[in-house]
Amino acid sequence: MCQSSRGGALTEDAAAGTSDEDAVLLFVGGPLDGRVQIREARHGEPLPTITHVHLHGGPKVVHRYDLQSLAGRAGVYHLRPTVHSPQQSGTAAE
Fold it and tell me: Is residue 31 a part of any domain in this protein?
């Protein structure tokens, strides 16, 4: 594993072959918390929202991350707070 300048681990794939034009993206919150992603410039600008779907033995769990751009080619994806509707919590609106 390679280390980022802040001490966080980067995968070898993410650290190999990067350029100054690539975007460095950090995830905060949820199941992707602490993950660092290098988005190659050839893929274009980072998406404003990313959806992460976790499939397991139970129901699927969906998390959405919203991008906050930083100076240069960096950004932070923050976990979007979940909003529960009355139907999701099992109570009926009266």
Answer: yes
Q: Which CB contacts under 8 angstroms, 24+ apart, belong to 68-73?
A: 73/20, 73/21, 73/22, 73/23, 73/24, 73/41
- Domain containing 68 equals 2-83
Question: Domain tally for the chain?
Answer: 1
Q: Which tokens sit at 87?
A: 């139907």
Query: What is this structure's pTM?
Result: 0.68
Asked whether residue 62 is assigned to any structural domain, the reply reads yes
* Spatial contact of 76 and 25, defined as CB atoms under 8 Å apart: yes
pLDDT digits (tens, 9 = 90+) for 81-90: 987 766 655 5
